[in-house]
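Pasting as-is:
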Amino acid sequence: MRDVNVNKLREWSAAIIAATAFAAGLLLSGTAVSAEAVSAGQADVLRAGTARKDITPKMPVMLAGYASRKELSQGVHDPLSVRVVAFEQNGKRLVLVSTDIVGFYGGTAASMRKAILAACGLQPSELFLAAIHTHSAPIVALGEKVHPNNAEYTKWLESQLVAAVREALAQTVPVQIAVGSGSSPVGVNRREFVKNAAGKTSVQLGRNPAVLTDREVQVLRVSRAGSGDLAAVVFAYATHSTAMGPHNFLVSGDVHGLAAQFLEKYFEGRVVAPAFAGASGDIDPWVRILPTFRTEKGWVPEAVLMGTMLGEEVASVLEDLKKAGRSGEAGRGREAVVAHTLSGPIKTAFKTLTLPLEHRVKFDASTGAESPEFNLTVGCIGGVAVVGLGGEVFNDIGKAIKAASPFPHTLIITHCNGAAGYLPTKEACPDGGYGVDNSPFAPDAAAELVQASLRLLRELQDSK
């Protein structure tokens, strides 16, 4: 029965989203903005290079995200990629890496960062190595307890990451960037309050639309200077990519990955669309934990539907930014602000925080944390800031950083340069539930993270 379903899914993919064809055709190995000579007079010009490489496993692997899943993967629904946009100005770099995996756990963040930094001559603060947190991608890990196929995949993934970053840095051209935002209902608070037969209330993973969440879709448009042709679109949105649950055994980028694929197919050419997960420790997609990609009677699988919705909102923001750039006005009633940053400057900072701990939680595999350290990476390109959080933070933490940031536009990305586990807000802690009970951090840790982020942002703004 499973073989029949996989065949149907492959037929559907070819007809509806052409995922497999996309992987073989448009998803070129190492797509990049073409090289251009740099003269001495161009040192102050903002430049960027892009790259995209296929990281779809070539053999069955153990999929990440659910401990209950004990079997190897049974096929590929849509391809996985690593996508890179590398900015450079006056010798300073800011490199955004989006990887279609669940996260860099078990020490792999440190080891892969070390390999990339050494191969590409980057400073630690210049690299934002992030995962989109899809739960339908291979476990990335090494060691005796890891399935041999996953160990082999992890080593190969490191080589692909190094190659992608090196390629993007080697082929930069003058660019201009614009920033805007949209809104999407795809993500919803997942901390559902449920009463048992005795009338006792507990928090379960589900859907709680009564809680207001940050629905902002953050979009960065990167276009080639002069022609204005689109080179890349960077976007961040706060949701888990968990539309597919533990009974799904097909490889997929899930919501974020499918949104990126939609954008690259929609805009064609050599456009790269790195996706990032915003502050989504307590946010799931509206439809979550599905066993399979339904296709009967023309049914559009919910993961594809939600990924496409997110991708279309990003595309609409891009179109409005282009219109605003020509006329100085936003389109479709949407706020679209153009940020001209041809002269930068680029600034970055990296800090490892020691946040207060919840001592009743041990640091082991069950916590999702590899150490009590929390990596914080911040950078800016002119008036656009990026905050990379090395953990799985609750939504209100990202909202607080954005609201108090000294920069006009602040992108929040998580699962970046580390995997310190869940970090809930102080307000959520008394209610418990998943994300709180298994967090290694004390209730005051969230406020300390927000303040540390704002301090680094202010230091960047004030530095020369």
